[in-house]
Every structure is written in structure tokens, then in C-alpha cells.
Write a structure and sequence with these properties.
It is built from 8 helices and 12 strands. The chain is of the alpha/beta class and 254 residues long. The structure holds 3-(4-hydroxy-3-methoxyphenyl)-2-propenoic acid.
Length: 254
Amino acid sequence: METKEFYINDDGIRLHAKLDFPSGEKPSFPLAIIIHGFTGHMEERHITAVAETFRECGCATLRAEMYGHGKSDGEFRRHTLLKWINNALAVIRYAKDLDFVTDLYLCGHSQGGLLTMLAGAIEQDVLKAIIPLSPAWMIPEEARSGQILGVSFDCDHIPRELKRPDGLSLDGDYIRVARMIRAEDAIRCFGKPVLIVHGTEDEAVPVSYAYKAADLYSHAELVIIEGDTHCYDRHLEQVTSAVRDFMLRQLSSS
Ligand code: FER
């Protein structure tokens, strides 16, 4: 079946989305929502590979791009985690209303993995399981500690703009929002199954956060990929096989 490309309306903000169907003639199937990370988009190699894996398991996939990313509305420097949470809720609302959907799954990479933890907690009654990949849940802690993106700032005087030496720039509101988020609370209240995948050579998110999250979740499985990076440059096939293995077990229990 062909890809359906469209926009999901989040109260006037257009979020670029692609819906892809699994092969076969079934009238209904589970749906996996998949979200990219900070500066990412839906066509990144690891995002398309994970989406394909969900489809091989018999799920439809809905890849969506969040505020300020990919072909969605909004300027990159003006995105915040609150905007992303609202975006994710709009995408989940859209997915819930699709008539072919049986169970819903939420998967995201890095900042999209943190979003998966946060939106997952909000929507835990409608989600069957969540799959945070290398979730960047150190971002709120970094924002509280006065260093983000490797750039230091004064916590008592949040800058109007945070600029990385390479030119990447973020509004101060990114920090203001990030530092009020308590990812631990979202983790602790989520009682459904969770799969966390993380590489030991992750240069953006310390792998220690994967161990800590798996410990705090009541039903988490943790797959550590020895020697792999933040975007799985070395062992992407181990990431997809972890997702496949987890999903086949979820689907056989539904
Ligand atoms: C940071 C480290 C990592 C940060 C964001 C990330 C905004 C996110 C990475 C990703 O989503 O790939 O300090 O600050």
C-alpha cells in the first residue's frame, strides 16, 4: 500500500505526517506512532528503519514531525518541550480516531524518546506500550544545572537566546520549559510495558540514563547495544531486532 502524506492540525499548527500500512489484506491493525529527535526528521535512517520494523510486525506506522522540525510548522529556535507535548497529544488524538486502529504504540528517539515518556504518561490509558529509543531525559536536569547543548548559562538570568558555536540557536524559553519538567514523575506513573534501547557509545545521551529509567519503570525491558552511537551508526540491525522481538511479544498478548 502506498504512503499517505498529510498534515495533522494541532490547533492551527500543521504537523507533517506520513502513514504507512503493513502488507496484507487485514481490515484493522495496531498503529505505532514514531517521533524523531532534536534537529531530526522522519526520513532519518534510524527512524525509517524502525518504522519498517513495526510494519514487518503487522503494525501501521504514523511518523510525525514536531514543531520546528522537518516540514512541520514553526521555527526550530522557538520549539519547546511543551509545544512538542501538545503536538504529540494532537497526533495521538488523530490516531485514536482512525477507524482501522486496534492498539496504539508510541515510539520516539532521543528528545522524541523523552517526549514518548512524557506524552506516554499522559496517554497511558490509550497506549499499549511505549518504546523510548535512547531517550534524552537528562535534558531537564541539564537545564536545571545551567548547561545545555554543551553551552553554559546563568540559571538566574536565562538568556534570550542560546547559541551553540556551530550557529544552532534556541530561544531561552526552551530552557525555561525544560527545567520545569520532571521526567521521573512520568516514568514512575507509567505502568504499561516499556522497551528502552540505548548504545554504550552514545555521544549525546549518557547510557547511564537508560539503566536509571529501566530501573524506575515498573515494566521496562532494556536492550543495551554494545559499541553503538546515538543514532545507531554501527548496529542499527540490533536496534530493529530488539524492537521486533518486543513487538512480536506485545502483539501475541493482545
Ligand atoms: C542536549 C543534549 C541532547 C540537548 C538536546 C539533546 C537541547 C537532544 C538530542 C537529540 O534529541 O538527539 O544538551 O539540549
